[in-house]
Amino acid sequence: MTHPAFALALVAAGLGVAASAGAQTTPPATDIFLAPMRLLASAPTMGPARVASENPKGYDNQPFFGPDGRAMLFTSNRDGKQTDIYFLELQTRQIRQFTATPESEYSPTLMPDDAGVSVIRVEADGTQRVWRMGEGGAAPAVIAPAVKPAGYHAWIDAQRLAVYVLGQPATLQIVDVATGKATVAARDIGRSLLRRPGGTISFVQREQGVWRVKEWVPASGEIRDLVPALEGSADRDAAWAPDGTLFMTTANEIHWWRPGQAGWTLLSTPEIGTLSRLAISPDGRWMALVAVERP
Which of 12, 179, 192, 251 is the most buried (most CB within 10 A)? Predict the structure, then answer.
């Protein structure tokens, strides 16, 4: 069953593109591609990647699948001014606008317990914080006002939120949503912040110049080492499949790793451009890939 916030976005056509609140840097032209996949016990497989939306010279990025794998939220700049959140129905390829605000919204994430969608909002004065929104982007409200500048986030559960906070160095902060209090859990981390199947929060951290994938355990606060990040991966962008397979991109390649495996294995070279972010649908049937738009 489609999440209600996603369902409303599908039918709420006609939302206009908001005007920019001020001069902002135009993001690079990127496209989102979708590829069918199968999570076999021996190894994952992936079919051809095809573009998911038409937005020439525009910015489509940061895909996030709905719980049933039939819909996807993503960030898009379609007027060259600022970004909003959009909704894609996978079967029909229909696209609807989910937010239409003077601010820019990024990193759409479904909140626990059907409580709406959370985003990183760039406010009128440039402040970056986590915000929550109801159906169709209604009733926006800031979460943890003091936690800024927020770059990315992942929900641990309905009471706690993991936030990538920009700084020198960037930090992983665990936020108590009720009080707004944040605790630093790790330093010098990368932007890939994910809820791993099983409930831990995975992140990448630099130690003595080497990037490693780690996980933070909610029950104890313990940090466990998982695997060195894929060599050559510029931003260590990653995604977990529901069976516990981890995927990471570098240049135009996709690699995978499973616990107990010594290193990374090449999955595919889809030849759609330089790859960055990726996402796996909760049913394991689709991979979304972000690629830099070719000239």
Answer: 192
CB of 5 closer than 8 Å to CB of 116 = yes
Domain ranges of the chain: 4-292
Asked if residue 119 lies in contact with residue 107, where contact means CB atoms within 8 angstroms, the answer is: yes
Give the residue with greater pLDDT, 233 vs 82: 233
- The per-residue pLDDT for range 176-185, each reduced to its tens digit, is 999 999 999 9
- If pLDDT is split at 50, 70 and 90, which confidence band does 79 have? confident
Backbone angles phi, psi at 227, to 5 degrees: -165, 150
- As its CATH architecture, domain 4-292 has 6 Propeller (2.120)
* Cα–Cα distance measured from residue 37 to residue 76, given in angstroms and rounded to the nearest whole number: 25
Q: CB-hemisphere CA count at 13 Å for 189?
A: 28
d(CA 253, CA 257): 14
∠ CA 75-214-278, nearest 5°, is: 25
What 3-state class would DSSP assign to 144?
coil
Confidence of residue 25 (pLDDT cuts 50, 70, 90): low
DSSP state of 214: E
Torsion of CA 121, 236, 164, 126, to 10 degrees: -30
CA distance 194 to 86: 21
Q: Which residue has the tokens 């929060």?
A: 201
